[in-house]
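Priority: medium. Attachment 1 of 2:
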């Protein structure tokens, strides 16, 4: 008997809005203190420097405001959990759009402008508003969950590349972890493997025998940041298992063929 189809995970809209705003604020303060040497370092994201990556984070907020300034979309085409699979083909287009819209302004100016525009746009629009997006039309509420993913992933990128210690909001980290875990379950539906990412997520995935009680025979467990790095291609499965950042037990508990979830 096939497993019952699960209802999409629900997120608290007020908490997600607050998390996006707070996380952008954390990055804003850190970026304002970066020196020339740090800004010139490779970011680890393609061929971007830290300065390029920092500008992209400013664009994340600025483009949200721009999306809300356009006429609304007609019909929802994409949910939050489907979003990770729709982004890869747009990387070049997003990078080009960021360069054009930001115009090479100094980072503090970019962040100040983006924060003000985002705050004003969010205040004026409910979560049910449908955004007309390249990736597919989404509700504002769902799109804000994806902004948590972008902000958490790039905060971690900046921390590692520039030797920073930018805090990550718990609600943003939770949303990022859960969305990427749910995306894995959507990519490989089933109930033979249980993936645990305490304290935020537990999902079952991969076709095969299901367990009904007790400890399942195939278990993967890791921490949120390791999971996020694996799910976005920033960490290697074999290395993470070797270094005990991932604990995998059972003959089916190898996720390497399913990673990254989002690239």
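Attachment 2 of 2:
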């Amino acid at each position: 008997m096939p497993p019952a189809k699960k209802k999409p995970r629900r997120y608290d809209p007020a908490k997600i809005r607050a998390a996006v705003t707070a996380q952008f604020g954390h990055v804003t303060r850190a970026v304002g203190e970066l020196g020339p040497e740090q800004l010139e370092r490779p970011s680890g994201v393609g061929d971007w420097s830290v300065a390029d990556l920092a500008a992209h984070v400013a664009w994340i907020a600025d483009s949200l405001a721009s999306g809300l300034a356009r006429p609304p979309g007609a019909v929802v085409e994409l949910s939050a959990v489907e979003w990770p699979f729709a982004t890869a083909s747009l990387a070049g287009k997003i990078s080009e759009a960021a360069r054009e819209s930001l115009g090479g302004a100094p980072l503090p100016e970019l962040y100040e402008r983006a924060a003000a525009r985002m705050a004003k746009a969010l205040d004026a629009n409910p979560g049910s508003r449908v955004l007309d997006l390249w990736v597919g039309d989404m509700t504002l509420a769902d799109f804000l969950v994806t902004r948590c993913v972008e902000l958490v992933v790039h905060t971690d990128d900046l921390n590692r590349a520039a030797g920073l210690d930018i805090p990550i909001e718990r609600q943003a980290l939770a949303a990022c972890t859960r969305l990427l875990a749910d995306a894995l379950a959507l990519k490989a539906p089933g109930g033979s493997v249980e993936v645990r990412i305490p304290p935020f997520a537990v999902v079952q995935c991969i076709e095969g025998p299901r367990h009904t009680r007790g400890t399942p025979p195939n278990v993967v467990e890791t921490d949120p940041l390791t999971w996020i790095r694996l799910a976005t291609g920033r960490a290697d499965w074999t290395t993470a298992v070797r270094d005990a950042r991932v604990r995998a037990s059972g003959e089916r508990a190898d996720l390497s063929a399913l990673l990254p979830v989002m690239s």
